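tokens incoming
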């Protein structure tokens, strides 16, 4: 880790509220998420074909994940909530983590990895009208399955993102999908390409569809690529290598330390 990144990390951690508790933060997210999933499943009655709705809802969630990362987290929109998301992600998260140092060492640093707990409630609130509509148009099972998929996808997002920022170990190195997204996300934190490529944080399906992946592979190759850099697009490889380990992880953005959002 370079001196600039180390200074930023020290400053950021010093500004985290003294009462912040990493395990409590994560516990609230997962306990609420799992409780909502369990409640929805418990309310279903003889669900069968309705489970097929998981496929389109998952596909939409994957595209939405890509869209919000590319056009909200990495594009400054001068609207209060959207500006706060941009500041937290581009100006903070991408200074705290570069492809030179992607990991955390303490639970207090989980603050920079996970969304605030209110994000889960926001996504559930956004999904509720659609769940109610499906419940009315089709049947209640359909509405519950939509909510289960939304919440489940959110928990997968948080889990995969956390796995991208822990120290290398046998689990993250050899677990399919997780090893893929670790490499995928590390490249995204390279200054030279961070605004253009690798926007997915779960499964790089939308990146493959939209042509924003750094890899030149088919869908199966993307999903099971693991740590390999063999298939990086030639036009991106030089740019990635040029900025490898660059501390200035905020491309053409202000470099002043921003307070935690």
């Amino acid at each position: 880790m370079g001196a600039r990144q180390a200074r930023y990390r020290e400053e950021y951690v010093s500004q985290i509220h003294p009462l912040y508790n990493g395990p409590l933060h994560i516990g609230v997210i997962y306990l609420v998420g799992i409780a909502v999933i369990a409640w929805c499943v418990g309310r279903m009655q003889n669900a069968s074909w309705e489970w097929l709705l998981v496929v389109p809802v998952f596909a939409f969630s994957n595209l939405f994940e890509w869209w919000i990362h590319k056009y909200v987290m990495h594009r400054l929109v001068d609207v209060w909530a959207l500006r706060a998301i941009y500041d937290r992600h581009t100006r903070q998260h991408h200074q705290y983590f570069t492809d030179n140092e992607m990991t955390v060492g303490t639970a207090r640093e989980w603050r920079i990895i996970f969304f605030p707990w209110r994000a889960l409630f926001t996504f559930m609130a956004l999904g509720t009208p659609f769940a109610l509509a499906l419940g009315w148009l089709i049947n209640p099972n359909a509405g519950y399955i939509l909510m289960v998929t939304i919440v489940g996808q959110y928990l997968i997002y948080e889990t995969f993102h956390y796995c991208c920022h822990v120290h290398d170990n046998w689990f993250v190195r050899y677990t399919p999908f997780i090893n893929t997204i670790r490499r995928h996300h590390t490249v995204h934190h390279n200054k030279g390409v961070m605004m253009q490529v690798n926007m997915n944080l779960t499964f790089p399906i939308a990146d493959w569809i939209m042509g924003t992946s750094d890899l030149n592979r088919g869908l199966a190759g993307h999903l099971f690529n693991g740590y390999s850099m063999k298939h990086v697009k030639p036009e991106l490889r030089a740019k990635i290598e040029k900025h490898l380990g660059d501390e200035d992880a905020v491309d053409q953005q202000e470099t002043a330390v921003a307070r935690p959002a």
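note: Residues 42 and 144 are 9 Å apart (CA to CA).
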